[in-house]
Amino acid sequence: MRKWMSGALGAAVVVGAAMPATALVSEVDIAYHGYVAMGRGEVNVRLTPTNLGPSIEDATVRLHWSKPLAKVQQLPRGCARHDVSTVVCSTGELTANSKGREIHLRLRLADTATDEVRLEIDSVWGDDEMDRNPGKRRQQVLVLATGDRYTF
């Protein structure tokens, strides 16, 4: 009987060791959908995070502009200025396979006569979480100063 038990335990260890490491780790999978519009130096952004992976307590979306923002901005709660061209916002809790709360920003560019600006949107990760899909890590939107909405 003792011989059988040691063989069964040995087989369990081999099966466990053969499992790929990625099967044990959940992958974060967040996408951002919304629109951006610009006119007279003011940029209006609305975006909603969508979590296609496991639940997470919080994530941070980074919005980086190709032109500097005006020094004074009125940012919504949960958002902060990172540098002259970047704002970061907390997404809040994102449950598995769900949409988060909408984030709405109205920003002013330093140069109000700007004809176009490029917006880059991506996530800033913590706790070693990362989205392994390089196509979704960073979105870019070219925004013309026409007042039209550009969706992403």
Question: Outline of this structure?
Answer:
With 152 residues, the chain is mainly beta. It contains 2 helices and 10 strands; from the N terminus they run αββββββββαββ.
SSE blueprint and pairings:
Blueprint (H helix, E strand, L loop, with lengths): L1 H17 L11 E10 L2 E10 L8 E6 L13 E5 L2 E5 L7 E2 L3 E6 L7 E9 L9 H4 E7 L5 E2 L1
Antiparallel strand pairs: 1-2, 1-10, 2-6, 2-7, 3-5, 3-8, 4-5, 8-9
Q: What does the model show?
A:
The chain is mainly beta. It is built from 2 helices and 10 strands; from the N terminus they run H-E-E-E-E-E-E-E-E-H-E-E. The N terminus is likely disordered.
The termini sit apart by 64 Å
Poorly predicted ranges:
1-25
Secondary-structure content class: mainly beta
Overall mean pLDDT score?
83
- The string of secondary-structure elements, in order, is HEEEEEEEEHEE
* Fraction of residues in H or I helices: 10-25%
Counted beta strands = 10
Inertia-based shape? globular
Beta-strand percent range:
35-45%
> Rg, please?
22 Å
Count of helical stretches: 2
